[in-house]
Specification:
alpha+beta, three-stranded antiparallel sheet, 28% strand, globular, binds zinc ion, GBBH-like_N, metal-binding, iron, GBBH-like_N_sf
């Protein structure tokens, strides 16, 4: 079943992609995280070959185009091949939330 966000916005101020899901949850995925999470054939090959990192910390997301089952993300490094299925974006958001929770519990 398709579980697409109700709202998708590029938040330049926080350098992250904002999404609001149908259950009311919101996620903010940093541009650099998204860039390095690209699953297109080209990026998968680069990861397998252990070439230079896909992402630089200051990479910017310039466009997020709805593409049926997900979003085509366009980055300012010229990369626009990645299509991120909703389910994948949801999983990235969940993983990131888990990491943030761990961070918080460590600082307590
Ligand atoms: Zn890619």
């Amino acid at each position: 079943m398709m579980n697409a966000p109700e709202l998708v916005a590029i938040d330049a101020a926080s350098a992250s992609l904002f999404m609001r899901w149908p259950d009311g949850a919101v996620s903010e995925l940093p541009f650099a995280l998204l860039r390095s999470a690209c699953m297109c054939a080209q990026c998968r090959k680069r990861k397998l070959d252990r070439e230079t990192p896909l992402s630089s910390p200051d990479v910017k997301l310039v466009d997020a185009r709805p593409s049926g089952y997900g979003l085509q993300l366009v980055f300012d490094d010229g990369h626009d091949r990645g299509i991120f299925p909703w389910i994948y974006l949801e999983r990235l958001a969940r993983d990131q939330q888990t990491a943030a929770d761990h961070q918080e519990s460590r600082t307590l």
